[in-house]
Amino acid sequence: MKQAALKNFDLTWVPITGLVIFVVCFAAYTYWTYKRSNKDFYEKAASIPLENNHERI
Fold first, then answer.
1. Mean pLDDT computed over 1-6
2. C-alpha to C-alpha distance for 2 and 21, rounded to whole angstroms
3. What is the DSSP letter of 38?
4. What is the mean pLDDT of residues 9-35?
5. CA torsion through residues 35, 41, 47, 48, sign
6. pTM of this prediction?
7. Cβ 37 vs Cβ 31: under 8 Å
8. How far apart are CA 3 and CA 35, in angstroms?
């Protein structure tokens, strides 16, 4: 059944476009995460569970 469905699938640009969009987004998010200017943000976020503030909202 899968072969019959794929045999009639003429839109090969759709999965290629999806793959390109995924790779570009993944690379952008990875770059944004590991760039040096975000180091302070991630250090502060990493220390949140260790703080003794037990205030409830």
1. 77
2. 25
3. G
4. 92
5. negative
6. 0.59
7. no
8. 44
